Amino acid sequence: MASVPQSSPITPAPVTDTEALIIGAGFSGLYQLHSLRDRLGLSVQVLEMADGVGGTWYWNRYPGARCDSESHSYMYYFSDALLKEWQWSERYPGQAEILRYLNFVADRLDLKRSVRFNTRVTGARYDEAANRWLVSTESGEQYRTRYLITAVGCLSSANIPAIPGLADFTGRWYHTGQWPHEGVDFSGKRVGLVGTGSTGIQATPVIAEAAAHLTVFQRTPNYSVPAHNAPLSEGFKRYVADNSDRIRQVMHSTPNGHPFIIAQRSAHDPSEHERKALYESAWSIGGLRFRSVFRDLLVDKAANDTASSFLKNKIREIVKDPATAEKLADIDHPFAAKRPPIDTGYFETFNRPNVTLVDVRADPIERITATGIQTGKAHHELDVIVFATGFDALTGPLKKLNLVGRGGVSLNALWEAGPRSYLGLQVSGFPNLFTLTGPGSPSVLVNMPVAIEQHVDWVTDCIAHLRKEGIARMEPRPEAMEAWSQQVQAAADATLLSKVPHSWYLGANVPGKPRVFMPYAGGMPRYRQICQEVAQRGYEGFEFSR
């Protein structure tokens, strides 16, 4: 009689121990790695799902992908050596140059040896008895760590709209946040672009130049200011090299973290003629500096109306077809109350004979067919569809990590009605978990490297304090978290930002997502001061266990 083979026991995957574990190798993850490994001497492991560093700039390779912060401010300022060794080529850096910069930093600081690439985190659970986080990956690996830091970015979870029929489409479709690294050839193609936020505004002119025909499906018309992008002069490069301390000082003093001062005059101060001249001058300078011409554009609706009217008239001046111009200028929100795009030839693109604008508020998309997009009034034959529909911002990337804290409570369940945190840095019930640029911090409302450096420095100092004092775990008190959530809402309510119901700042671009204003709108200097005071008062609002 043949013996029955016995099944082999399943060998559990080995667990890798590390003092700190960071998820993500973009701007924030790389600096956090350097700060904990090279400054504090901790053993640190970074897990990154891509096969290289870069974060946002690794994935967002869509046509026209470019930063809307000026290049000399979109970089690390923690190291004078790094500042001296790198020079940007353009006023607004493109995706490829930013990715080269982040690789330069990673190589210069020898960071890649501490990064495990092609590693997607699928879950992390807090073990209360051991006071450790157990992190699981898609490939079955497990990591055990005392300090877990998420550096997953604010805009990294692609929002693909659930339009009926997408699976039936026989052409190719892409989301701008998941762009093929080999690029896409639009030559001779009929392309449909869905979405006219910042990404759509950047991609439209570039796709239009290559495609046989481009149809832009616009639900929400948007303002945009010309970038006037150009190569940097040698004189400006010398200025940046010689004035890094001054540039850093300006970025740390202004609410949005950019390298320019916001004028202290009100839009109501000058005469109408003088005000128009100031706007014309700001338009000729271009970029986000347009917002700095008056101090009250984001807090006074009447002041904002003057900027909104000027910009709408610019659209009507640029776009030759009156009907198309009116569709583009039919903007229903105050200027800069949603993310204010900047562009290179966006409105001019609608003067091209191979570009059509479809107003989907008047003629909604009903479904995607095998050969295109069907609206209520027409069928648009397409070979390629590009979704420039943004992201499940701020909370989406964190929810994908499936974080489970003390008592088996998941972050996803805790945030079912909207995100709550203390300072955007920690969440009650999740000891020793730090969320870099998380909801409740300035993050997307400011120049990101400035926000990132402040967050990383605070977390690093905090961990150094915990180690020095022999503190085993740290988390915010529930009442501190609730009070901060109220402050975040109050800061938004003091501006026009919370008055736009369809803004992704409130999660309105994702069906079913709770409408909660997520970033802190009180300005970077005020936020920095609050964080400093919390630390100086013995980390007020946090509770500790030894």
Labels describing this entry:
globular, alpha/beta, 20 strands, 546 residues, single chain
Describe the structure in your own words.
By secondary structure, the chain is of the alpha/beta class. It has 2 domains: 15-157 and 393-545, FAD/NAD(P)-binding domain; 166-387, no CATH class. It is 32% helix and 16% strand. The protein contains 16 helices and 20 strands. The strands form 5 sheets. Strands 1, 2, 3, 4, 5, 6, 17 and 18 form an 8-stranded mixed beta sheet that branches. A 5-stranded parallel beta sheet has the order 7-16-8-9-12. α1 (27-39) packs parallel to α14 (448-469), α9 (301-318) packs antiparallel against α10 (322-329) and α14 packs parallel to α16 (524-536). The longest helix is centred in the C-terminal third of the chain and has 22 residues, at 448-469. It is globular. The termini are far apart.
The major pleated sheet works out as:
8 strands, mixed
Content of β-strand: 15-25%
Low-confidence stretches: 1-5
**Average pLDDT score:** 94
- The count of strands amounts to 20
- Domain unit count: 2
